[in-house]
Amino acid sequence: MTNDVERGGDSLGARIRALRKSRGVSLRDLGQRIGVSASHVSQVERGMASFSVPILYRVASELEISMDGLFESGDAVPPRREQGGATGENGSRELTPESGLDGIVLRAADRKKITLADGPRWERLTPEPEARSEFLEVYYEPFSGRTAPLEFTRHDGREYGVILEGKLHVQVGFEETVLSPGDSICFDSRVPHRFTNQGGEPVRAIWFVREDHDHFRSEPTPAAPRKSGP
After folding, report:
1. Which range among 54-63, 86-95, 151-160, 189-198 shows the weakest confidence by mean pLDDT?
2. Number of neighbours of residue 146 by Cβ within 10 angstroms
3. What is the CATH T-level fold of the domain 7-77+104-210, as seen in this structure?
4. Residue 74 in contact with residue 96, Cβ under 8 Å?
5. Which UniProt keywords apply (predicted)?
6. pTM of the prediction?
């Protein structure tokens, strides 16, 4: 599976390469920081492979960019996280009489997308990056015939989600449940978590991720937390 599913053929790998070079980070250094080989980083940058969700969060952390900024054009270098990506008081674009709807309305056909190694496809729901936040529609394909990811994600911030279609298996810390259409969830993103579609139908959900800190930090969580007891 490649990661090159962005509108207009823009590649996530090309953006990562441009960011890495602009930050003066070598393939080997980035690989060591995020826990993968330099050759795997190179394959992702060339569109021959893709990162999992936890690894992509680590990439964003190491390259000092918001996850939202990774949706931008392939050769462009988004600003560092502390600069944000918008102009409003809360990091969003302000509506003025002169601006009309330009920059605040996003048509469905113009969404920018990222497909990740462990299955989900993210579609950004904002016309431009939002400072310290991501607003996404996420699609989870069934894991029938494939092995569900074992690695958990853990990062600064808080997440909010609502299921539109299908049933999503959710594990946050020691707790597990299945969310059905109309169910919603919110939790501290620093708690290890993962989402999998263990059914036979695709899952569609809306997610909002708020980054609470100026400097995003993602920590590796190699294994599922286990309940204590006999």
Report:
1. 86-95
2. 10
3. Jelly Rolls (2.60.120)
4. no
5. DNA-binding
6. 0.70
